[in-house]
Amino acid sequence: MGQAVRPGADDTNIEGMLMKIAMIGTGYVGLVSGACFADLGHTVVCIDNDEDKLARLHRGEIPIYEPGLEELVKKNVTTRRLSFTSWADDDIGNQDAIFIAVGTPPSETDGSADLSAVYAVAAELAPRLAGYTIVVNKSTVPVGTGSEVEAIIGKTNPDADFDVASNPEFLREGSAIDDFMKPDRVVVGTDSERAREVMRSIYRPLILNETPVLITGRTTAEIIKYANNAFLATKVTFINEISDICEAVGADVQDVSKGIGLDSRIGQKFLQAGAGFGGSCFPKDALSLTDTARKVGRPTQIVESVIEANTERKRRMADKVIAACGGDVRGKTLAVLGVTFKPNTDDMRDAPSLDIIPLLQKAGATIRAFDPEGMQQAKPMLPGVEWGTDSYEVMEGAAALLILTEWNAFRMLDINRVKTLLTQPLIVDLRNIYTLAEMELAGVTYHSVGRPPVGAS
Ligand code: NAD
Asked: Would you name the residues annotated as active-site residues?
């Protein structure tokens, strides 16, 4: 087993800084983190309880769509630094660190995070611990989860020599590898100096690349992750509300975003008006933070409002589409491009399309849709949708084109072809991927978000 050495203390002892790591959960976070840790030189074994997923990984298939991941996994499997196994097949004792990267979805009953998978993992790994190990929560978990994991392990295996640390993950699907390898910062929450040393060794290559590492208490690290996502969700919701005002007064929200984003106190990122935030993190993390806030007697008015405004946003977007189609979509076919919550992922969790499309169907529209990577996941979630094989196929004979996700492939459509395929040249773009000038030039009726409509009578 590698011995933890503070980076810089003895830079010649690289061997001693290479760690043995187990990654529990091979989803969007676990698989990317496991492959990246292996690429940094550590030996990583990834464990999942989904047999089908494991079988696919063993065959060299990647169960999710994430750019660059297939090559990274392949490379590190070949060098034997990365392997996959099940609980039954592996003895994960003798690891320097065991990362928990299982899902923490919202519970069915309230907004709280469902921690059953995290606690199941704690109980599963406890009897296997051998030698000093840090158990690291990479899953996004509310305050107190680290203590509960510690209690479960301590109760199940009173002799275990371990610490529980928090190491929230900030990667974004679609650019996950880059985000992991070049993060804005790494946050490590633990009061144990021993655990800090191991974590420094694990992240040593990134630290040498000048990545800031913030070491905090465990509770603080848990809050950082939620505060981070709640803030970003707030920023998105803020600009969405500003876009409504822009529409009402004839202003252009994209110029407003630039105008305020150039203020270094605000920054340009997460200021793109759109269909409402979605995905596997913002909605559930905002909910979980409000749940924690209420439980500790400090309800957060801002985050509660953000959740409410975002829910309302998706209904308003459906209304906007219907209004753009002349106020009635009964009997009309709408061509939808993009159903995933953002481009470069196949993740459909809480995608705005899951609200907007059923509302349009309820209003009487027939939906024909295409997404470059998300259709397999989307099919069971969006009953009644007719799925196409490419962008143009779904437009044939449709009354309007609706853009719901800003995949690059949709940014370069042949607009003349689009016009010949649709029954009328009507585009509703909820991601603002075209300029008003090019749509005007193309002779299209174009409705976007927070900008004046083009060509509408
Ligand atoms: P996911 O659903 O894609 O993956 C979770 C994996 O854990 C699945 O493969 C599942 O089979 C496995 N699993 C569940 N129970 C298990 C068990 N007992 N033993 C072994 N494996 C088990 O989830 P995700 O998107 O990777 O998210 C994981 C955590 O990371 C969540 O808390 C999430 O909030 C957080 N997070 C996600 C992202 C993201 O972009 N997806 C970013 C940052 C943080």
From this structure: 281
